[in-house]
UniProtKB/TrEMBL annotation:
It comes from the Eukaryota. The gene is endov. Belongs to the endonuclease V family. It comes from Salarias fasciatus (Jewelled blenny). PANTHER family: ENDONUCLEASE V (PTHR28511). The keyword Lyase does not apply. Gene3D superfamilies: archaeoglobus fulgidus dsm 4304 superfamily (3.30.2170.10). Monomer. Interacts with PABPC1; the interaction is RNA-dependent and stimulates ENDOV activity. Pfam families: Endonuclease_5. Its cofactor is Mg(2+). This is Endonuclease V. One of its GO terms (molecular function) is metal ion binding. Endoribonuclease that specifically cleaves inosine-containing RNAs: cleaves RNA at the second phosphodiester bond 3' to inosine. Active against both single-stranded and double-stranded RNAs. Has strong preference for single-stranded RNAs (ssRNAs) toward double-stranded RNAs (dsRNAs). Cleaves mRNAs and tRNAs containing inosine. Also able to cleave structure-specific dsRNA substrates containing the specific sites 5'-IIUI-3' and 5'-UIUU-3'. It is found in: Cytoplasm, Stress granule; Nucleus, Nucleolus. Signal peptide: none annotated.
């Protein structure tokens, strides 16, 4: 019998997840680690990946786990893997990674085994990195477990750690005049957890960029902007254009963690 995704998870499970999240967070690297990250034009960067889980409307158990790899800087499709999967873990705010990461890691494992020469040098995740309740979102979880540099890019603002969709926030968005403009997402503690980025001249609505793993925030923002033809970076936007997943919609949960 399939698990009840709406049932309240046992306290033991939450405690186990909290412990594992804290353990993995100690392995997080928030700085640039790759040679291609240092130059203004990202010289040496050839392959950028994107991952996402998309859901059929009304079905929170079955999803399409997708991985694409694009060439950089031309954004041409090099590799695509879309598989229907059945989720077994419940959705709990702040612990989205335990529900989704296993299937995304599977896609990366298949790529490593089948076409290792196409392994991405950085992965964009449709969700958050350190901009998270405990500063360890989906992009961090995937980054640490895969060992790859990761960038979290969320379409909706996660109101967390004192960051609010306030009048001040709206006025900061209005002040983003052109693609590449950004402002910091500052927690009540004073820590900068990410940046709101106007990713394209064509879109006044920002995306929310945060570090996943093995990349600095400034580099993550520059890279996101360089991969945007429209509002959403191409490695993530490609899913909406794929014939395999065109009938699916992204669960609102994917922006929460």
């Amino acid at each position: 019998r399939p698990p009840d995704m709406n049932a309240a998870p046992a306290e033991e499970l939450i405690t186990e997840w909290e412990s594992e999240q804290a353990r993995l967070r100690r392995l997080l690297v928030l700085e640039d680690t790759e040679a291609w990250q240092s130059g203004p034009g990202f010289s040496g960067l050839q392959r950028v990946g994107g991952v996402d889980l998309s859901f059929i409307k009304g079905d929170e158990q079955n999803a399409c786990a997708a991985l694409v790899v694009l060439s950089y800087p031309h954004m041409e499709l090099l590799y695509e893997d879309c598989r229907m999967v059945t989720l077994t873990a419940p959705y709990v705010a702040g612990f989205l990674a335990f529900r989704e990461t296993p299937f995304l890691l599977d896609a990366l494992r298949r790529l490593r085994e089948d076409r290792p020469e196409l392994l991405p040098q950085v992965v964009f995740v449709d969700g958050n990195g350190v901009f998270h309740y405990r500063e360890f979102g989906l992009a961090c979880h995937l980054g640490v477990l895969s060992g790859l540099p990761c960038v979290g890019v969320a379409k909706n603002l996660l109101q967390v750690q004192g960051v609010q969709k306030s009048e001040e926030h709206q006025s900061q968005i209005a002040a983003l005049r052109r693609g590449g403009d950004s402002f910091p997402l500052t927690a009540a503690s004073g820590a900068v957890l990410g940046k709101a980025l106007r990713s394209s001249d064509k879109s006044s609505k920002p995306v929310y960029v945060s570090v996943g793993h093995k990349i600095s925030l400034d580099t993550a923002v520059r890279l996101t902007h360089s991969c945007c033809r429209y509002r959403v970076p191409e490695p993530i936007r490609q899913f909406a254009c794929s014939p395999h997943v065109g009938f699916l919609h992204v669960s609102p949960e994917s922006n929460g963690d």
